[in-house]
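Notebook entry, structure prediction.
Reason for the run: the old model in the group folder had no record of what sequence produced it. Starting over properly, with the input documented here first.
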Amino acid sequence: FRAERQILARLEHPGIARLLDGGLDADGRPYFAMELVDGEPITDLADARRLSVDDRLELFAQTCEAVAYAHRQLVVHRDLKPSNVLVSEDGRVKLLDFGIARLLSADADDGLTRTGHRVLTPATAAPEQVRGEPPTTATDVYGLGLLLYEVLNGTRPFPDTGDRHALETSILHDAPPAPSSARPGLSRDLDTICLTALRKVPTERYASAEALAADLQRFLEHRSHPVDRAV
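New structure, fully documented this time:
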């Protein structure tokens, strides 16, 4: 609880739900108060409004911007999923729930990444999270890749059928199908962008959330084709 409050206190960005207050109540119990975000999960809103691919990418780009800001503050979210990315009526994205986020500073110790403590959402975990390795910014790049996949076609590359072992085996070893396989007509360029973010080896993904967003921006502006490698 204290770790989450410490992390939230570092973050002041229009795309991240703000910490308003924190302390101890009259009984000595810790609390913090957050900005109320009145919105829908990014995937629900995109489907309800039947947004075009370009409009979906614009919303996703806002998410990348918020994640990139958190990384600059040495914060890894490590639980990126639609329910943690809400969109308000005016189309603004808000990233929330830093409950299992982690500081990357050398002296940070939240107690959540020690051996035997795998704190994660199974369906949206990166391979290194499944292996119990320390998270890095590449972990969030993978999370962004999963989110992009779902924003584009409404499915995840590795569906959770309730079999935890089978799910983790797929995350670790199976190649994700191209997004266009579930949504015919989707650009092959978007396949390349999404699958680059979802590579099993962290160093083979995009080098940062900014690099992922930059490739998407180039796609939207039709300036060039993305390269099939980390940039």
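Summary: The longest helix spans residues 53-72.
The old model has been moved to the deprecated folder.
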